[in-house]
Amino acid sequence: MKIPSARELGAFYGRCAAMFDAGLSCSAILDTAASGRGDAAGLAADLRRRIDAGDTLSEAMRNSARFPPLDVAVTAAGEKSGRTAEIMLLLSRFYERKSRFAARIKSRMVFPALVFTLALFVVSAPPLLLGTIGTAGYLLRTVGVIAALLLLVAAARILYGFGGPVSQNVLDRVPFVSGLVRGMALERFLHCLGMLLEAGLVEDLALESALGVVSFEPVRKVCLNGLAAVRAGRPLSSAYEAEPLFAGLPLNFLKTGEESGQLPEMLARAADSLGEKTAARLQALSSWLPRLVYAVVALYIIYSIFSLVSGYYVPSLRGLQP
Q: N or C: which end of the chain has fewer CB within 10 A?
């Protein structure tokens, strides 16, 4: 079944956190949520049925196959430690932040995409009106180009999914993209680890669960060293001292958290710091990408004008020759 969007998950967890904090039981909370409208109501009703059948909340979430593994692991830990309300609030903030970030990036790309699409149809119109190209040629220049770009994006996503570590290693060698993807993966790892520790999981189990949500293999290999260090009785920070991925603020936050006994809070701050850095990089990308689109559109317009003018005047000039 389809996993809800980050916005839907954030809203769902936020309502659950408020009602848990008010002292309502899990069944009462789900009954209230199921009485509403939309996907969240159906999600709550499904969880309620599973709880009636004997599942705990985390078991119902896992068996519904509509929640990410991180959410299931964190909720299970919260149930064991009696901190379900806190965990729901943490999950709500996590997904709300993720949703706002994605919406901001998408909003910056909508206008350039519209400009590019409109330019394709407008620039290809004069040759059609002058009879230089037919309807099939017009559709090829407009709809055909858009379809080719969409197919290219779909093919890239499929190759990335099936390529696994190979495609990820290739992506890890691309300048700028490598730093961006590594930063996002590390931010997710630190956020997850912080929430799992906050939920009451012991450090090695929290690390094992947090590693499960890191899909980018180059980062996962580095983070895996922490699990070996903790199981060997060494501090988590000792495993990452020589790793460039953790250099600077992430490592400093780790050490401060271990020394002060506030590791979950320091991990959250490290993740927030990385998130701000990643946001700045994506902000730069989203600022330059529209300019690139505008430049491509301008070049395409200039090329189309020259092609049209040369196609119209050259035959006329030939007709003037004796």
A: C
Q: Are 59 and 50 in contact (CB under 8 A)?
A: yes
* AA identity, residue 36: G
Helix 69-81 to helix 84-123 angle (10° resolution) is 160
CB 10 within 8 Å of CB 89: no
Q: Which H or E element spans position 78?
A: helix 69-81
Task: Mention every residue, 6+ apart, whose C-beta is less than 8 A from residue 231.
Answer: 204
Task: Say how many CA atoms lie within 13 Å of 55 toward its Cβ.
Answer: 17
* Domains of the chain, each with CATH number or no CATH: 6-93 (1.20.81), 98-322 (no CATH)
Distance CA 121, CA 52 (A): 57
Report yes or no on whether pTM surpasses 0.85: no
**Rounded Cα distance, 49 and 54, in Å:** 9
Report the amino acid identity of residue 306. Answer: F
Token pair 């710091």 in the structure block, residue: 273
What is the phi/psi pair of residue 257, to 5°?
Answer: -65, -40
For 67, phi then psi, to 5°, come to: -125, 140
Residue 249 corresponds to which amino acid? L
If we measure between CA atoms, which residue out of 99, 75, 69, 73 comes closest to residue 87?
Answer: 75
**Tens-of-pLDDT digits for all 322 residues of the chain?**
567 788 888 888 888 888 888 888 888 888 888 887 777 788 888 888 898 888 888 899 989 888 887 788 888 888 888 888 888 888 888 888 888 877 877 777 777 778 778 877 877 787 787 777 888 888 888 889 889 988 988 887 776 665 566 667 777 777 777 888 888 888 888 988 888 888 777 888 888 888 887 888 888 888 888 888 888 888 888 888 888 888 888 889 989 998 998 998 899 888 888 888 877 777 777 677 667 777 877 787 777 677 666 665 444 444 444 4
